[in-house]
Amino acid sequence: MHTFFLILLLGVAVLATPSLSAKYERSKPDESGYSPSTFTPPVYKPPIPYPPVYKHPKVEKPPVYKHPKVEKPPVYKPPKVEKPFPEHKPPTIPPPIHKPVPPYGHYPGHPPVENAEYYKPPNKRFPPPNSSN
């Protein structure tokens, strides 16, 4: 469908163009060298005298009213009293929170292992009392 419209447009374009055999004829130039059809001498136009710009006269404004200053009594500040430094106390350490220890071999998210001794890693620094190492 698109090709049909393209062919139709091309046909219309070919019919609308003038024949290529007809050459463009220029008008012959005058003795001055310019062709009369394209060149017209510039016409002198005197500048237009514009009236001066109107400026409004300055209007004197009355001075801005300022309220008279009202003297306020000074703000009362209580006298400074030097406080003695507090006694130095050692920091208090809270008692340790007792957490129930899971049976050995119990990993978070897993049930306790029946044979926990089998999974116990060897402790070389503090061997268990019944080991023969």
Automatic annotation (TrEMBL):
Composition skew (Basic and acidic residues), residue ranges: 61-90
Entry keyword annotation includes RNA-binding: no
Annotated signal sequence range: 1-16
InterPro entries documented for this protein: Proline-rich_CW_protein
Compositional bias segments (type: Pro residues): 91-111, 124-133
Region (Disordered): 23-44, 61-133
PANTHER family (UniProt xref): PROLINE-RICH EXTENSIN-LIKE PROTEIN EPR1
Protein name: Uncharacterized protein
